[in-house]
């Protein structure tokens, strides 16, 4: 069965090269997928603070470690699926903020990031049709990203939760879809100006992983090995935990 699935996946990439995913999907029936499904059914304790994590597949990699680290201290909930870029965020943030899991509660802490999807190249700007061609547009060029981020921050601030922005993590040359390595820092700089203007705390994951990127990150990839996700999960947990005592 695994051989058949692998062949199907191989032919899919050969026939549709632009459909390369930004997220890794474990094979159905695998131990990893079963573990993820088990973690996704975490019970909610209404007596604990509520923490929302908004982010792409990088955050989906470290969120299980945050849940583990903050078990018994907070309800840690990731926005449904991959939060992608700012265009997707503007369309869905209202629904994420009004998650039914909260009941009559409100978010105490929101840890968020957009950037890694915004800076990638796509066939048509604003879409998720990935491209490996640097001549194609970015999903959200820097001015669009900056404008979108300002709108998202305004909406997040109106929710009343403690906000923590996570910087976009670095990646090497050659990743697919096309992403220029220098753009991670450029997009972070644009976001950090907005965070400073709005007095929003910053969790610098970019600087955390950069010195050990060769060992923490998968080869020619934006994604991380377990050790990288675990390291980020610890720093995310610490950034969140210091605000939990004030919210209870």
Description:
This protein has a 5-stranded parallel sheet, with helices on both faces. It has helices at 2-15, 31-40, 57-69, 86-97, 142-159, 183-197, 205-209, 213-216, 226-241; strands spanning 50-54, 75-78, 109-112, 162-166, 201-203. Helix 3 crosses helix 9 and helix 4 (86-97) packs parallel to helix 5. The model is unreliable at 1-21, 23-34 and 36-40 (pLDDT under 50). The chain has a single domain, classed as SGNH hydrolase (Rossmann fold), CATH 3.40.50.1110. It is built from 9 helices and 5 strands. By secondary structure, the chain is of the alpha/beta class.
Give structural attributes:
about 250 residues; alpha/beta; Rossmann fold; five-stranded parallel beta sheet; 9 helices; 5 strands; about 45% helix; about 10% strand
Overall strand count: 5
> What structural category characterises the helix and strand content?
alpha/beta
How many H/I helical runs?
9
Shape: globular
What is the gyration radius calculated from CA atoms? 18 Å
**Low-pLDDT residue spans:** 1-21, 23-34, 36-40
Q: What portion of the residues fall into strands of 2 or more residues? A: 5-15%
């Amino acid at each position: 069965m695994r051989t058949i699935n692998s062949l199907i996946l191989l032919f899919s990439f050969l026939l549709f090269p632009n459909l390369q995913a930004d997220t890794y999907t474990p094979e159905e029936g695998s131990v990893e997928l079963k573990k993820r499904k088990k973690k996704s059914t975490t019970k909610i304790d209404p007596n604990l603070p509520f923490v929302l994590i908004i982010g792409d597949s990088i955050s989906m990699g470290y969120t299980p470690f945050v849940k583990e680290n903050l078990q018994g201290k907070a309800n840690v909930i990731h926005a449904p699926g991959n939060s992608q870029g700012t265009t997707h965020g503007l369309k869905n943030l209202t629904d994420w903020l009004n998650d039914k899991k909260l009941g009559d509660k409100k978010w105490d802490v929101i840890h968020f990031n957009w950037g890694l999807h915004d800076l990638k190249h796509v066939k048509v700007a604003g879409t998720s049709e990935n491209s490996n061609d640097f001549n194609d547009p970015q999903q959200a060029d820097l001015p669009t990203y900056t404008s979108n981020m300002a709108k998202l921050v305004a909406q997040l601030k109106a929710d009343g939760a403690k906000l923590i922005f996570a910087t976009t993590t670095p990646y090497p040359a050659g990743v697919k879809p096309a992403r220029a390595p220098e753009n991670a820092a450029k997009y972070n700089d644009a976001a950090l100006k907005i965070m400073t203007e709005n007095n929003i705390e910053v969790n610098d994951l970019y600087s955390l992983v950069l010195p050990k990127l060769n060992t923490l990150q998968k080869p020619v990839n934006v994604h991380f090995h377990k050790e990288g996700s675990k390291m980020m999960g610890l720093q995310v947990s610490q950034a969140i935990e210091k605000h939990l005592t004030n919210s209870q």
